[in-house]
Amino acid sequence: MNAIVAEVARRGRLSFAEFMELALYHPSAGYYTRRRSGPGPAGRAGDFLTAPTTSPIFSRTLAEILAQLAAALGEPIIMVELGAGEGILLEGVLVQLGDRRGDVLRRVVAVEAAEWARSRIVRRCRGVETEARLSDARWPDGPVVLFASEYYDALAVHRITARADSGGVALAEYYVEHDGGTGLRWTLGEPSTPKILEYLAEHGVALVDGQVAEIRPQARSVHAGHLRWCGLDAVALVLDYGYPGRRLYDARARRGGSLVGYRAHALVDNVLGDPGEVDITAHVNFDDLENAAADANWERGIIRALGSFLTVHNALSLLPGAVARGEPLTPEEWAQLAAAKRLLLPTGMGADLKVLAQGRGRAWQAYLQLATAPPAEA
Ligand SMILES: C[S@@+](CC[C@H](N)C(=O)[O-])C[C@H]1O[C@@H](n2cnc3c(N)ncnc32)[C@H](O)[C@@H]1O
Predict the structure, then answer these.
(1) Pick from 313, 318, 314, 310: which is nearest to 351 by CA?
(2) Which of 18, 162, 174, 352 is the one with CA 20 to 30 A from 322?
(3) Ligand 1 near 113 CB (within 6 A)
(4) Which class would CATH give 51-156+216-367?
(5) Which of 112, 120, 153 to mutate to test the pocket of ligand 1 (most atoms within 8 A of CB)?
(6) Which of 146, 127, 148, 124 is nearest to 78 (CA)?
(7) Distance from Cα 220 to the centre of ligand 1, integer Å
(8) What is the mean pLDDT of residues 123-138?
């Protein structure tokens, strides 16, 4: 029997949040944590694409933001990546900085739950420190840029639904249990924790009859903890799928919620099938991350669609030189351009992925200058 199915059978009925934690992070069988010798989950050879694994334009743009911030602050920066995967983004940043690395970066910390992925980061990016948790990393001794790509949408969610009854609308939570054979099945029950009702009340969310939604009550405190770790002089750039709560929980737009699985670049509707082999994700409520900033005494921040974020930060100047010069492109340059367009155009990833920029202190003031100033003359 599949090890995660066996674990559910052993433990009995689990909330979907407990199941998702197990399916993604079970030490030996979890989708992210199980040992891998071949391709990792993110990337063309894996199950899904992320911005850093789609085109190097993203890591190059981030490297230039770091270089401009370090120049504005007059000192190198500590770069931290949460959920760094195999280190594709960090490698891209280091390559783009080249000889400038020592002036721009004081040190780089990759925070990653999967041990196999941490060893790949070490091999791929010389000099990058790795940790399983940010709280274990060395305390910052300079300005910090905290970066996360599709980290928060991989944190466990509770799945809930509303049903009309005589007294109005009653809330139920989805649970996962063993089906008695080799698989798992859904079952409905009372909310597993008062935090669910508190979350809905706090966010003013009223589900309509039949609506399904996912909530992550822990996201706010997790993000606030990360921001507090950064100290008084920092910028956080969070790249993720999601919306502000009023849009995420709008029944007209997402009556069935946003929970999906991915396998071999195809959507998987049944997220209970083959656990440990399928990525599971649900959109982020950006209000949680903004409220976390207020809790940590940071600026709540600016949210931009990925394409717009890249354009504001002058990513077009990093396209193959032949594009700017209007010269014919080689097949390789065409492929690079096509990949970059997936992130830049206001369709697909360029529109659906959002970048939330938040900050505190001098670093935030310097970032605001970059994010609003017109690009320097070429
Ligand atoms: C969707 S992948 C994104 C990987 C990479 N950031 C990218 O954009 O290609 C999410 C990553 O976050 C890691 N992760 C999730 N929760 C974590 C946690 N609490 N601590 C450290 N890493 C975590 C997972 O192991 C996985 O590598």
Answers:
(1) 310
(2) 352
(3) yes
(4) alpha beta
(5) 112
(6) 146
(7) 17
(8) 95
